[in-house]
Amino acid sequence: xxxxxxxxxAGQGPQAEEPTYIQGITEALREELxxxxxxxxxxxxxxxxxxxxxxxxxxxxxFGPARIVDTPISESAIVGAATGAALMGMRxxxxxxxxxxxxxGWNQIVNMAAKLHYRWGPSVPITIRGPSGGYTHGGPxxxxxPEAWFCHVPGLKVVAPSTGWDxxxxxxxxxxxxxxxxxxxxxxxxxxxxxxxxxxxxxxxIGKAEVKRAGTDASVITYGSGVHLALEAAAExxxxxxxxxxxxxxxxxxxxxxxIVATVEKTGKVLILHEAHLTGGVGGEVAALIAEHAFERLDxxxxxxxxxxxxxxxxxxxxxxxxxxxxxxxxxxxxLLDY
Amino acid sequence: xxxxxxxxxxxxxxxxxxxxxAVRRPGAAHPQPAAGSPLAAHPSGPPFGLTRDQLHRLLxxxxxxxxxxxxxxxxxxxxKISGGAFGSRGQEACSxxxxxxxxxxxxxGPMIRNSGVILTRGLDLRRFFANYLGRATSPTxxxxxNTHLGDLSLGIVAPISHxxxxxxxxxxxxxxxxxxxxxxxxxxxxxxxxxxxxxxxEGLNMAGVMRLPFVLVLENNQYAYSTPTASQCAAARFADKxxxxxxxxxxxxxxxxxxxxxxxxxxxxRAREGNGPTLIEAVTxxxxxxxxxxxxxxxxxxxVAEWEKRDPIARYRQWLVARKLMTQPEEHALxxxxxxxxxLACEQALADPFxxxxxxxxxxxAEGGPGAxx
Lengths: 339, 374
Known about the structure:
The complex is a heterodimer. Chain A is of the alpha/beta class. Chain A is 36% helix and 17% strand. Chain A has a 7-stranded mixed sheet, with helices on both faces. A 5-stranded mixed sheet of chain A has the order 7-9-8-11-12, sandwiched between helices. In chain A, 58% of the residues are buried. Chain B has a single domain, classed as Rossmann fold (3-Layer(aba) Sandwich), CATH 3.40.50.970. Chain B is 37% helix and 8% strand. Chain B is built from 11 helices and 7 strands. The N terminus and C terminus of chain B are likely disordered.
């Protein structure tokens, strides 16, 4: 996978002088810390060390230990503590060092935080963010895409930005949201994707998908790393005269049904693409929504392309084999266009 | 003096080195409180600065706790409670004595057997009954049952069924207090069984490292459902676990409401002054089954009979009378007040409406800012 376009500025290609995707995350955190005294960050090695990926480099000096809270290695306690602090009116932003470790906080997320407002009323404005995804030879425990685990849980919102613009705007929206939000940033994109960032007052609303490339012959409905694979494949197919639309879901719960139906109505052919495993993935839900709401507008069966149903293996050749790549996206689109 | 005072040696800012915790032989019983009534050890006259009214209120709250649990048991047997019904007979001193040591600005996270905590914090009895009865008027509006209720205006955070999950949450409440420089304390409860769950470790460890204003009361009531303490923990005392977190661990007679109050009050003051968390083990006995459906046939009858002699309410009542801190007319007035309040609240809650079915679909997500309610 290579760096590709992002919105706004889609189609212009990477520009070295523009900020990176990870800078979008850092800027969102800094601006929200500056503008809201109730916001604080909590996680492992985020203070003195500045985070495993340096998202919070310098923050401890800038904001002090009452805003940047280093913790013992205890994901469950971190999420639980964030929930408790949120009940007292704060807006904690949790960093999972790698999103894979979010599984250790599972019960606090799905049983405590997610059900709390429904059960007895208070809001739980916590954001849980962390580096997700593969293509980095991280192996089975540093490559996870856990979105489907959380998309099944009422009370949670789940977002997965693909560009620096969306990374910044969606993180600000997540922090300001009164609900627990799972914010999945893609670590392969951290320093490979560049593009403009929104200003301090712009948020990217949760629940809104975006067409990253307009087209008429087929649609790729995707998110996260898949957006860049789709844009690459679409650019190649454009040279052969095919017009492929790329819809970036951006938010995975709640899904933007209107945008999904709109792209189906426009092209009639859909490839659903995600890096997470195929079975039980978000793509299945998207396919079901299309069947329920836009079946008669389809000109071809809905196709899905996703990771193989295996753990993400470590060794290069194995990892490349199980993860989607632009060539396979193009092949899938070609068969869809031929249908 | 009860064990609380002896254990205070460990409650210095930098915990002193302790001798290695004793290891109990498998199958051996956990140590029990010394024979005789520690209440007798209290000096004559109102102890610990408690007024006569406060001493009466402790009895009132324990009586209310028991009467409430008894009525819940009746309602369950009448088929009026569709879910589980959990009592705390024998453990009233643990709930009431500890919650009584908190201030209104403090925040508590009661467990399933802490109806006494909820009552001490002042939840309206009718709304409490309504929660068991699944009524729209309850703090959860029928979305959750039993003691699974919260009310931030009373500083109550609702538990979930997963044991020890509240420990990190209340540690987080304490963290908010610390970050904002507020002199408030967070407290929660756990059982002997719940101490085996991971969140117990993660939460206490974090609270210890961050020196949070946090108190954990561990009610060692001898059984976790059917599992005796000997199958739950190999340490001699549950309070010994505190040493692993660098915090004081205190063991008290959980059937002595004044001993519980005294130990917890010291821990609360310690936390409020910025000196960090405390683990308090209150040794007590679950006098009924895990819940109403459970006849607790696995508990030796002799053990129950032995603990019956240490009933926390009878002991405290006798102590008050013997110390001439309560007259017979006052006793009778208290008994009839409790009966009257329970009757009235139960009757009102039974007449309260059930929620409308379609309302179940609302309020999954919050709208607006922090503290927003549906």
